[in-house]
Design brief:
The complex is a heterodimer of chains A (about 375) and B (about 375). Chain A is an alpha/beta fold and about 375 residues long. Chain A has 14 helices and 16 strands. By secondary structure, chain B is of the alpha/beta class. Chain B folds into 3 domains: about 110 residues, no CATH class; about 110 residues, no CATH class; about 150 residues, 3-Layer(aba) Sandwich (Rossmann fold). Chain B is elongated and about 70 Å long. The chains are: A alpha/beta (about 375), B alpha/beta (about 375). Chains A and B meet through helix 7, helix 10, helix 11 and helix 14 of A and helix 2, strand 4, helix 5 and helix 10 of B.
């Protein structure tokens, strides 16, 4: 395939409720997030840009200078979720278009070259789905070939385009990138503050010094039990403390966590690759990253020989992720190993109590296998 | 959970610096914290406490600044049910709606509702705080108004007498039900919504026996914010430096116990002196108390023997008393190490105290959090959520 026609669909219809103000209009170094995103796309090989607005579309159009070449779509049903914005965007792409690049409007550190690499990868391999991966952590944007447009029009539910990934696992290409910009989305005002203060420093320095944190030491002897926590959250922090106290070796896997912030974990791995954590039958994996990277982590965990796999999250979300892995061909007996919701039912509400409930289950599982006569 | 909050509250009051308190007042769906969770925030962005697991804390700080500036309380709604956040796996695990009340406060004020909480907690009194967080069509009730309710009295800054009376009645029913909840009241020409919050008092854990295996137990319990007291008759063991997380380490003979502390319905007890006579003497003291949880460390046979000795002394336990004894102590986790045993004990106390079966959460049907957000199983209305 030679130079393909790629349409960028920039999704900016959402009501950024967690921010409490219009995320699209937040300024990072003089420009609004939306202007930055449109600029990145314009500098890439994308041949057209479809901008989907919804919530406060008029206000956004008033503030943001939108290039005349941009196709503007207003999604009146934006409140019904991002799937409706994807539908609106896909309907508006040119009939010449070979593929659509789904771009979120809160990734100011994305580089045009990364987009071009995704496009090249699709041209080279003919893959239907292409996305960037940074050290094992799946990033954005995602490039989807025309052959899947009809299916994109059917997307619904909470996990959005990810439902396609499971169905078409063999048509996915991952592009390994060295640029953490593909992972950084500005979810909170704190993220915005970090992004704004970031000047001369590299992204890695602004958001957590990655390279120097990687202090995983492949020790000679394996300890008898190993707790691996994926992601950072307050529950994850409490799990580290309890794990250490219960004399587990504790490893945290998170793209940005620094050893200083790791509550005394033995190892911090800034790469989503459970083989690097030497997962074996004495390993207890708890995925506790508040939803970030949980699908990839779960996918790796169920394929490992871990003694215990817990997914922190609601039953509903767990069921969706498991369904997605099932579609991707993960066998049923592997999926059965996932504990979700995790923990014992002891009336746990605070992070400390939730961690307690999970560690009680971990110890129970450990002693089921390693009982003393 | 109150220790840190009240400590910070006292500091802020003393400094005279204006600050805001954010309180989760109403939730639906799967949210991180339950009603009654609070955060204290100052204009410079420092925050003590946690109400969302990071989902919207930083945004709250911005709003708190405004509240401090305007001096007006307001209720904000955070909605994480939007699937926008979930596309391509970048979403949060929790999807729900949380209403959060933000109130401005400054320096040493008089008899306000935070003082009420402070008094209830420090003096070990049960109280119900009714906090109005939504008002429609009423000119004499404002968001942030409260009724402070105790067993036989109530006090309020609300002018509308009808509203005060209804909230006081609702508050007293919360005492009886032992469950915090939200109520909606029609008040003539308007309506209001209020959180009726049972002031949560910490678990008080009394450990009889200050041996090495008590050390991890104190640490686990202290980490959960419980008040812990350790009692032993051996001076070499009953040393405060061995139990930095304990609120008190008491050196005393079992027979002198009542001179040192009173065991109430709120006290949970673990007997683990590793000495039969001592265990027996502590058990004699505790079994006639109001304590609803008495854990006996050691095999079932030892507990049988203890009960046999009680009978020999003419003490025959009722079925109700027997039900309060947990032996062998702790959930059946297969625990071996002292830390694991401590984990099993603390988990059992948590489950028993709030009436949960301690089975696997994934075997439970329905949502993880119950609709009435925490049911108190013990007879006295002394704690609800968190």
């Amino acid at each position: 395939m030679t130079k393909s026609f790629v349409s960028a669909i920039v999704l900016a219809a959402g009501k950024s409720r967690r921010m409490g103000k219009l995320k699209q209009l937040i300024r990072v170094r003089e420009k609004t997030l939306l202007e930055i995103t449109l600029g990145i796309v314009a500098d890439s090989r994308c041949r057209e840009t479809v901008l989907v607005l919804g919530y406060q579309a008029d206000e956004i159009r008033r503030v943001v200078s939108i290039p005349e070449t941009t196709k503007l779509v207003v999604n009146p049903s934006f409140e019904k979720g991002m799937s409706t914005s994807i539908h609106a965007g896909v309907q508006s792409v040119s009939s010449d278009s070979d593929a659509a690049l789904i771009v979120l409007a809160d990734q100011p550190f994305l580089k045009p070259e990364i987009i071009d690499r995704l496009i090249e990868e699709r041209e080279k391999t003919g893959a239907s789905i292409v996305f960037p991966v940074y050290k094992g952590f799946r990033g954005n944007p995602v490039l989807i070939g025309r052959s899947l447009f009809p299916e994109m029009m059917q997307i619904s539910g909470d996990i959005g385009c990810r439902s396609l990934f499971g169905l078409h696992a063999e048509r996915i290409r991952k592009v390994q990138v060295e640029d953490i910009g593909v992972l950084i989305d500005l979810d909170t005002a704190e993220d915005v503050a970090k992004a704004t203060s970031f000047k001369e420093k590299s992204l890695e320095e602004a958001f957590g010094d990655i390279r120097q944190n990687d202090r995983f030491v492949s020790g000679p002897q394996l300890p008898e039990r190993h707790l691996v926590i994926v992601g950072s959250s307050d529950v994850a922090g409490e799990l580290i403390k309890l794990g250490k106290f219960l004399k587990f070796r504790v490893t945290v896997v998170d793209p940005l966590l620094t050893p200083e912030d790791s509550s005394g974990a033995d190892h911090v791995i800034n790469e989503l690759d459970l083989t690097r954590a030497s997962v074996n039958s004495a390993t207890y994996v708890v995925i506790a990253g508040r939803g970030k990277f949980d699908e990839e982590a779960l996918d790796q965990a169920v394929r490992s020989s871990a003694a215990y796999i817990a997914l922190m999250g609601s039953k509903k979300r767990g069921a969706e992720l498991i369904q997605s892995l099932r579609s991707a061909g993960v066998p049923e007996d592997a999926l059965k190993r996932v504990k979700c919701p995790a923990g014992l039912e002891i009336g746990a509400f605070s992070p400390e109590e939730i961690a307690l409930s999970v560690m009680a289950e971990v110890v129970n599982e450990y002693r089921r296998v390693n009982h003393v006569e | 959970m109150w220790n840190e909050f009240l400590k910070r509250l006292a500091e802020l009051r003393k400094s005279g610096e204006p600050f805001a308190v954010a309180t989760v007042v109403k939730v639906s769906g799967s949210t991180y914290r339950r009603p009654g969770a609070r955060v204290l925030m100052t204009a410079d962005g420092s925050a003590t406490g946690l109400i969302s697991g990071g989902c919207f804390e930083s945004d709250l700080i911005e709003r708190a600044r405004k509240v401090i500036e305007t001096g007006r309380a307001l209720t904000v709604t955070f909605d994480t049910t939007s699937p926008d956040d979930l596309i391509f796996g970048l979403g949060l695990g929790c999807t729900g709606v949380a209403q959060i009340l933000l109130e401005p406060l400054k320096g040493l004020s008089g008899q306000d509702h935070l003082n009420f909480i402070h008094q209830c907690v420090t003096e070990g009194r049960a109280g119900v705080l009714a906090t109005v967080f939504r008002v429609e069509g009423l000119s004499d009730v404002s968001v942030g108004d409260t009724v402070m309710i105790e067993a036989n009295t109530h006090e309020s800054n609300i002018e509308n007498r009808q509203a005060v009376d209804v909230l006081a009645v609702e508050g007293h029913s919360v005492f009886e039900e032992g469950v915090s909840r939200v109520c909606k009241i029609d008040c003539g020409e308007g309506t209001l919504e209020a959180l009726l919050e049972l002031i949560p008092l910490p678990v008080i854990l009394v450990i009889f026996g200050a041996g090495p295996d008590a050390v991890p137990l104190v640490r686990f319990a202290g980490g959960l914010g419980w008040k812990v007291m350790v009692i032993d008759k051996r001076p070499a063991y009953a040393r405060p430096d061995r139990f930095p997380e304990a609120d008190a380490v008491i050196l005393c003979e079992p027979s002198d116990l009542s001179r040192h502390l009173s065991i109430t319905s709120r006290t949970v007890v673990v007997i683990m002196s590793h000495h039969f006579e001592t265990d027996l003497n502590f058990l004699k003291q505790v079994i006639v108390s109001e304590s609803q949880y008495i854990g006996l460390l050691g095999p079932r046979a030892k507990a049988e023997l203890l009960l046999q000795h009680l009978r020999d002394d003419g003490i025959v336990l009722t079925a109700e008393q027997m039900a309060r004894i947990h032996s062998p102590v702790g959930l059946d986790l297969g625990a071996e190490t002292p830390e694991e045993i401590a984990l099993a004990v603390v988990s059992e106390i948590q489950a028993v105290r709030y009436g949960y079966p301690a089975g696997f959460l994934r075997d439970r049907s329905g949502p993880i959090h119950q609709t009435s957000f925490r049911t108190l199983q013990f007879s006295h209305p002394d704690r609800s959520c968190e």
